[in-house]
Amino acid sequence: MRVESPRPSVGPENEPDLALVPPEFRQTVQILVIDDERTLRESCRTVLDAEGYRVEVCGRGEEALELVRRRRYDIVMIDLYMADVPGTELLKAALEKTPETIAIVMTGQPSVASNIDVLRAGAWDYLPKPFSATHLQVLIGRAAHTVLVGRESAGGGEGTASSEGTTLLGSAPAFQRAIDVAKRVAPTDASVFITGESGSGKEMIAQLIHRLSRRSARPLVAVNCAALPEGLLESEMFGHVKGAFTGAVKDKVGLIETANGGTFLLDEVIDMPKPVQAKLLRVIQDGVVRRVGSSTTSAVANVRFISASNRSPDQAMKDGTLREDLYYRLRVVPILVPPLRERPADVKLLAEHFLQHYWRRHRDPNAAVPKLTDAAIDALCHRPWPGNVRELQNVIEHAVVMLEPGQRIEPGDMPLGGDVPLGVGTDAAAGLVTPDLFAQSYHAAREQVVALFERRYLTTLVNRAGGNMSKAARLAGVDRTTLYRLMERHGLQREMVTVMPE
User: Fold this and answer.
1) 186 and 328: one domain?
2) What is the count of structural domains for the chain?
């Protein structure tokens, strides 16, 4: 048995998972690989060493038992069928010593029964052999991210709550009540229904609940019920069998099955079509999933449901768009996240946090961080913030990429009021789509819209940077050569962009 392709390049499809764990953090993650096949454990060591983790390997069960009882490991990979000690005994010993250890069970004889048994015994995941190096990299990357989140949560203080690398800050009583309810309900399996305006932090509250729950070692899987048409949403949530509909060329596991043992977040649940609501209600009641096109039960649905919506569920029930029986199943514990305009005292706290955060991300962390003046703070505190915390976050990030080290930030340095780049708002977007557009072919229409957008974007960008091409390139996230090439393509020059095109 071996790990295939000991050191492949990681493809783009895997980068988001690996990027969750900074290289400097990987150096602190201690991994133990237990397997009596020398080729496999040494291949694992090679792959994980190259990723920057601290790796030990062990080929004897008795020695492995002594190691997990004596030392603390963040991640333990265990062969289920060891020659001298059963893998289940090693799993039990590892979790008895440190319950927060992430245990991954490997086996060359996978079966549904053994899969269920090890997960019930506390394993974080189940890895069939042989597996590729890429599969190993991604799986360990996810496990290490769980370790990272766990360490961050241990360092939280009063008035803060960390969630997936993002900090929930606020001292407003209404916000603190929401955080308090989230923390109190997290250790249970009760369904939670979170309401609040767009951008107020509903998803972050959901992540906090999951991270503090006993399901935190398993995935938090989310689906946006407003983003998919009925047929696609049903297939995504419940999966489908081969031949269920045109294009179903093979069986597909649904997101609820993927979240097994973890948490399933129904984002904008009120926008879920009524037929899909009925099928979801059956899953909640019976605890099993039936894939689209299947006449039999496909999988057990051992998930905790968290729902979120920016609309009133009471009004949705009156309108007939939300089933009452489903709502009361999902709303065992309601949480209301207040809008930012109702917590003005938190604006300064959040703004200064985002300023530090984005300066470290975009600029030289050793350079002096710009400071908000009293006038800037006053302007921020008196904004209505229709986009809530997300809007404030974007305003501060925009300011950061435009400012110089140590600069005093005045109200005019931030995109407040009507100072919004052309092309961002709905009116500007509508201006790109004219009636005659639909008389053209798809490709011709697309080229026209893209060209108009690029010209408007570049014009606004360089105007906002005051003609400073370095600033403009930094704001756009491209190098100056690329920016000059784009401007040349549209016949634009720095001194010509002070007048917006019609």
Assistant:
1) yes
2) 4
